[in-house]
Amino acid sequence: MNRRQWMRSAFAAAILAGLDRTGWLWAQQQSTPDLLRGGRREGTLTFADEANVPMEQPFGEELDGRSYTDLSRLAPESVKTPTAAFYVRTRASGLFESDKASTIRVDGLVSEPYDIRTEDLVRQAKPTGTHLMECAGNARVIHFGLMSVADWSGVPALDLVARRMKPQATRVLISGFDQYRLPSRSSMPGASWVFTFDDLKSSNAFFATAMNGQPLPRDHGAPVRLVLSGWYGCCCIKWVNGITLVDDSAPATSQMQEYAARILQTEMPLARDFRPATIDQAAMPVRIEKWRFGSAVRYYVVGILWGGSRAIQSLQVRFDPSEEFVPVNWLEQRANDPWSFWAHLWTPVRTGRHTVRLRVARPDVVARRLDAGYYERTIDIPEVGRTT
Ligand SMILES: Nc1nc2c(c(=O)[nH]1)N[C@H]1C(S)=C(S)[C@@H](COP(=O)(O)O)O[C@H]1N2
Ligand SMILES: [Mo]
User: What is the DSSP letter of 264?
Assistant: First the structure.
């Protein structure tokens, strides 16, 4: 597909989304086909101040095992991440025998403990939609590669956890297999999380058994993992082996404490003290291309927006702290989950280093990480040209 066809298809997709029963669409200013008319693409720049790390290939083991998604390849017509490129944070333990992980134990405040057979979940699984996952530890240095989107299948979590429950149960602790051969250099072992029933309902939580039409791979939590729409990946427990019904006195897990240290910066003893670990509205550039229009040099900036819980309608960009924010030329937000796209044709007036930052200019939209500069990216502009 050439550039023009690409833009045409994005535009077509935008129109279709506008007509869609569920989709909502906010197109700002110009239509994309106009943006690049008469131009010629000369190449793609790389972001400055980011490390030279392996992308889309697993490295390291167990708790320190990672694989990063290359977001620079994203385009509006291909929002899903192929499974082999989906990020990994914690690779399967060498001690974990997935063929023996045939049951999930349900205990705690239930009339009688019982087991759920994972093969029953695999059989009952239905398509559960396209969802984004982002690690709370996502970072610029690794090109923000701890974020991906897949098509999932599974079983609604609420259906499963609420069986044989005693009336005093108000929360549910979901745990996964977390014993490792090797000590970790960077994180505490033990992924488990305490949810309210309302958390599971509002996030459409499900126990996933397949992604992108294939059985869940080992590193992504086979045979069964949890997925919550709009919550950070740290809550999406892999290798699920336990469901414990608890009440409001349940302590926060070590995984919740680790997350708290990363996001909320305060230590809280009880699960009930935690705010839902939802992703605020966020946005960033993923690719900057150099274009020539006659004698003028311009830069085509493609980005994504994700997180949040409402249509933002307006997204603004700035290329230097001394500049004013301006509305992006094109924005097509279809939903908060998974990611959507924006684009901007930028004509810098000087060469050298620039810092790209996005802003949602709405007081009613919370965007803590975005507003703190967490998703800023820097770029070195090699050439500026006469504008016509
Ligand atoms: N059992 C278990 N589940 C886990 C983890 C873990 O260390 N152990 N890591 C969590 C974190 S921090 C993230 S971001 C997601 C990553 O899921 P992925 O590797 O499939 O992308 O899994 C979550 N589930
Ligand atoms: Mo994470």
Answer: T
Residues in the chain: 388
Edge-to-edge strand ranges of the sheet holding 240-246:
114-117, 103-108, 240-246, 171-176, 192-196
pLDDT tens readout for residues 298-310:
999 999 999 999 9
| Model pLDDT, residue 33 | 62
- Provide the mean pLDDT of the chain: 90
CA–CA separation, 189 vs 124, rounded Å? 30
Q: What is the residue with the minimal CA distance to atom 11 of ligand 1?
A: 234
Q: How far apart are CA 134 and CA 335, in angstroms?
A: 16
Residue 263 phi, psi (nearest 5): -110, -45
Q: Which residues sit with their C-beta closer than 6 Å to ligand 1?
A: 87-90, 133, 135, 176-178, 191, 220-221, 233-234, 236-239
Ligand 2: centre distance to CA 313 (Å): 29
| d(CA 319, ligand 2 centre) in Å | 29
Other CB atoms within a 10 A radius of the CB of residue 265 amount to: 7
Q: What is the model's pLDDT at position 98?
A: 77
Q: Say how many Å lie between the CA of residue 258 and the centre of ligand 1.
A: 13
Which tokens sit at 259? 């997350």
**pLDDT tens digits for 186-212?**
777 778 999 999 999 999 999 999 999
E strands, 212-276, are 214-215, 225-227, 240-246
